Input
Amino acid sequence: MLTLEQVYGVIACYLANRAESGAYLATEEATFDAMPQPLQTSDPALYDKLMAGKSQII
Output
């Protein structure tokens, strides 16, 4: 469990580095989108979980 101090620290870090955070998230999303589709057929449960998680973030 995170302390309130840790939560505020993360928020402060994000606010101080919005551009870098946005660029990082965009890169990670592009990497995720470029993942090979065989995951969809080799482990459909994992693929569904990843897609559900992605839809909650967007």
Summary: The chain has four helices and no strands.
